[in-house]
Structures are given as structure tokens and as C-alpha cells.
């Protein structure tokens, strides 16, 4: 049984990322359950998606301490949800900072040293400047597929199967950019914090 928790903010493409994961794990012969459990579709709202796979999966829900991997599209979201990671799990985090509404309105301050705080808590962190890689691929919205590429590189599933999942999930007109984004993420030299 495996579990991936995707955390981000509305508008970052977490749902597409979960669909790619669902396609690759289904293609690998697993029973897969995907659920966008809570979140706001408006830009800026926190969004959480669960992907669980295994021989037989009863529920998509991931409890605290149950995620093998957290794919965080933004640093504050990684900090907010790291307690869902199981012991020995890993967080793959985009180093981008997206100010939540309380920071925008001046009611709060964006926390400093998030990656250091996660590492100090004993969390294995792979930090990626996914926004720069997505821009290099040709579209800053491809951050999600860059992060999927980073995750895929540490997976036992062959790269070709991940590429097939991206192709089957992403609209044809966007495939070239997304395949490039995937390749850039896949070849990223994982920088452990």
C-alpha cells in the first residue's frame, strides 16, 4: 500500500497531478483511490488531494502519519501538512512562496526558514525550484508536472510508464510543454535539505 498527499493552493494544478498519479499507478496494476478531500478552487485557497494505491484500497483518505510522500506545491503548505507524513516518508517541495490571504492583508507574516524547520523536525526534504523549471519548459503552470517528474525519478515505476501517464492525462495541445516539464523534474538532481 502506498500513499501520496498533494498539497498546494487553488490554481496550481493539484488535480491534474493527482490524475497523472492515478493513471501511472493504475497502469502499474494497482487499485487506486483519488480524492480531493478539502480545499477551495479559488486561487489562494489551500487544496489537499489524496492518492492511495495498493492491491486493494478501501478509502482514499490519508490519516496523520500515513503519507509515504507529500508533494507540496508551495513551502507553507509543506509546513502546514508535514504531520501527515509517515516516519521515513519524504516531502518533495516546490521552493515557491505563495502568500495566503492573511499575509496579503497584513494580518500575518509568511514564516521564515520553512525548509530548515522541516529538516529540524526530522523530515526528509527534497527542495525543487519547480517554477524556474516550469518556465524553462515553456509554461509556469507546468510546476505540477515538474514535481511529478521529481517524484517519478525516485519511484520503482519505469520512466516510460510515467511519460505514458502524462500523455494520457494532459490535453494534446499541452503535451510538448508538459513532457518537457516532466523531463526537467525527472532529471533534477535531488537536493536534500
Summarize it.
The chain is of the alpha/beta class and 193 residues long. It is built from 8 helices and 7 strands, in the order βαβββαβααβααααβ. The protein has a single domain (2-192), classed as Pyruvate-ferredoxin oxidoreductase, PFOR, domain III (Pyruvate-ferredoxin Oxidoreductase, domain 3), CATH 3.40.920.10.
Name a few traits of the molecule.
Pyruvate-ferredoxin Oxidoreductase, domain 3; 193 residues; alpha/beta; seven-stranded mixed sheet; 8 helices
How would you characterize this protein structure?
With 193 residues, this protein is of the alpha/beta class. It has a single domain, classed as 3-Layer(aba) Sandwich (Pyruvate-ferredoxin Oxidoreductase, domain 3). The protein has helices spanning 14-27, 75-81, 101-104, 114-120, 130-137, 143-153, 159-169, 175-186, and strands at 2-9, 31-39, 46-54, 67-72, 85-94, 124-128, 191-192. The chain has a seven-stranded mixed β-sheet with strand order 2-3-1-4-5-6-7, with helices on both faces. The longest helix has 14 residues, at 14-27. The protein is globular, with a radius of gyration of 16 Å. The two termini are 27 Å apart. The mean pLDDT is 89.
